[in-house]
Design a protein that fits this description.
heterodimer; A: alpha/beta; seven-stranded mixed sheet; 13 strands; 27% helix; globular; B: 38% helix; cytoplasm (chain B); His_biosynth (chain B)
């Protein structure tokens, strides 16, 4: 059974992530202990609320270093919602720009659409070769967010070869935005798989299965 | 690739039990909110809402326990409203497993509560619940609709449309617009009020009050609702969530 650590750094409603992972058969621990985080087969970084607040809380428990160390060793990490956003270069909310973990190039900006927040079930467009969306390519997933990355991180990385090019899944709300990224050991979703019913469960099952 | 219109069953809960009439076929215990929520999840509900109508503080503690047991069993968002008065109340509900919290009367008394909650948890957790009715008697508001309290029995003189706009400005991530005139009639949602609010408000809008047949839900979606909420038609088995969605889908409305 794959052991999954869910990073416990004070973000809201992390228990739903724990339960959804348990539902798909993972052995889950909610923890911020660096040894436990390092030892797990997979690390999930949830995130709810404001970009700046999440970054501060993450750094507060040393989560930024834990994530970096795991990735340096090629060990899987899955970011959810603001947990996706903080993997990018920076986020701008209410005119304040906060540096992110800079694993991927791109900035998190406010969505321009008739109705914001983007709240509800939307379809996504996964690319060829996706592992996360296997079997649920045509399903809807539950999104709750007002900010997103709208530039293509794969495009920005192309000049930095040799690098394993990320697989980008797009969705649309007002304009297209990054709904998920799969990039070697680091994957992330802007939507909430733990709140996305059976489709979300299948996505988590796919990720847990990939942990080996 | 548009976002699907959500269908949301709502359960009135007091002392850990569903209190409004429930007559769900094939259910041994129709009064258990956890079991009902799970049924709705299985039927394809896009979200589930609990309205805590408990009178006492002790009963509210029971609700926390129900919220937490429900959150363990359903894998779609759970909204809990009723009697939320402070940031601490919101914190407790979120910790118990709610994804969103409905705020109503407390925000009328003290609108800053919305900003305080938004600052702490983000605006996506706040559903501002507006119980509105057509103005009657001496009362006049610009939109012709006023905000009520006490289950629609007491008028406030506050314009319902202006309040929805202000609530969104203060930090509400979503507006639950409940027509007190239509509530319980099963004659359909108040589409005029829905359109009035839709034209003014840029956050998601949930239509509530008056649902009786599948066409009502489709009309509410056409009038601009991002989500449609109903209680009795689902509880009594008059309609299933799947039937409502099938009608909406056939009418060309995106549903999950």
């Amino acid at each position: 059974m794959s052991r999954v650590a869910v990073l416990d750094y004070g973000s809201g409603n992390v228990r739903s992530a724990v339960r959804a992972l348990e539902r798909v058969g993972a052995d889950v621990e909610l923890t911020a202990d660096p040894d436990a985080v390092a030892a797990a087969d997979g690390l999930v970084v949830p995130g709810v609320g404001a970009f700046a607040a999440v970054m501060e809380q993450l750094r507060g428990v040393g989560g930024d270093r834990m994530i970096e160390r795991r990735l340096a060793g090629g060990r899987p990490v899955l970011g959810i919602c603001v947990g996706l956003q903080v993997m990018f270069t920076a986020g701008t909310e209410h005119g304040v720009t906060t540096p992110g973990l800079d694993q991927w190039p791109g900035e998190v900006v406010r969505l321009e659409a008739d109705v914001v927040p983007h709240m509800g079930w939307s379809t996504v467009a996964p690319p060829e070769g996706t592992v996360l969306f296997r079997g649920v390519e045509d399903q809807r997933f539950y999104f709750v967010h007002s900010y997103a990355v709208q530039t293509d991180p794969a495009e920005a990385l192309r000049s930095d070869a040799p690098m394993r090019e990320p697989l980008i899944t797009w969705a649309e709300h007002g304009a297209r935005f990054v709904a998920a990224v799969e990039n070697g050991p680091l994957a992330a979703t802007q939507f909430h798989p733990e709140k996305s019913g059976d489709a979300g469960a299948q996505l988590l099952r796919n990720w847990v299965a990939s942990l080996g | 690739m548009s976002v699907a219109v959500r269908v949301i069953p709502c359960l009135d809960v007091a002392d850990g039990r569903v209190v409004k009439g429930v007559n769900f076929q094939g259910l041994r215990d129709a009064g258990d909110p956890v079991e009902l929520a799970r049924r709705y999840d299985e039927q394809g509900a896009d979200e589930v809402t609990f309205l805590d109508v408990s009178a006492s503080a002790e009963a509210r503690e029971t609700t926390m326990e129900v919220v937490s047991r429900t959150a363990e069993q359903i894998f779609v968002p759970l909204t809990v409203g009723g009697g939320v008065r402070s940031v601490a109340d919101v914190d407790r509900l979120l910790k118990a497993g709610a994804d969103k919290v409905g705020i109503n009367t407390a925000a009328i008394a003290r609108p800053e509560l919305l900003s305080e909650v938004a600052e702490r948890f983000g605006n996506q957790v706040i559903v501002l619940s507006v119980d509105a009715r057509r103005c009657t008697g001496e009362t006049r508001t610009p939109s012709g609709y006023e905000v009520t309290t006490h289950g629609g029995r007491r008028g406030t003189g506050i314009d319902a449309v202006e309040w929805a706009v202000r609530g969104a400005d203060l930090g509400a991530g979503e507006i639950l617009l409940n027509s007190m005139d239509a509530d319980g009639t099963t004659d359909g949602f108040d589409l005029t009020m829905l359109r009035d609010v839709r034209h003014q408000v840029r956050v998601p809008l949930i239509a509530s009050g008056g649902a009786g047949k599948v066409e009502d839900f489709t009309e509410a979606a056409r009038a601009g609702a991002d989500a449609v909420l109903a209680a009795s038609v689902f509880h009594f088995g008059t309609l299933t969530v799947a039937e409502v969605k099938a009608h909406m889908r056939a009418a060309g409305i995106a549903v999950r």
